[in-house]
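The instructor's notes for this session suggest beginning with a concrete chain rather than abstract definitions. Hand out the sequence below and ask the class to guess, before any prediction is shown, which regions might be ordered.
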Amino acid sequence: MCGGDEAPGRPRVRGEEVLAKLLRLAQSGDVPGVLALVEAADPGLWSEHPGLLFDVRRCQYGALLAEGRLAEALQLARSELTPLADAHPSLLPALKSAMAALLPSPLSLPAQQLPNGGGDAGGGGGAGGSSGGELLPSLRSVAGAIQAALQPRLGLQGPRLVLLMEDAGVGPSP
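After discussion, reveal the predicted structure:
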């Protein structure tokens, strides 16, 4: 399995380093770093898991909205999110959700503009109120999904409890 003069444990260490760095990048909100690391570690991941790339880009979109950089967020939606959703129709609901983050929060509207004349709107995101946290994934959660997809591709096993549950037929399987 290991080539030539390479130490038997080396690929595992490399894979664990990649996963650890992925988490650090996600925790710091470094979307370009996450994209570059995954591309370097496994260039085929994005083509096999376009939903993961889409979610990373949605995180980037959400960060731009949160910083008030609306024009850049819209450009990202046009150049990255829309083509991915067009190529993979299962991503269309997530694209709609991302676009909904642009709408003003119901809490920021005057009561007479709310459905049923007002009352407790119960939250909501959007450029007019908050960062759309309910509509857009966090980079940390997306990094967790990327780690799960990368683990077997890097020759790593998941946590022992997860493996036992999968063997028993309980919980999701890869």
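Then share the key points. The two ends are 22 Å apart (CA to CA). The chain has one domain: 10-104+122-167.
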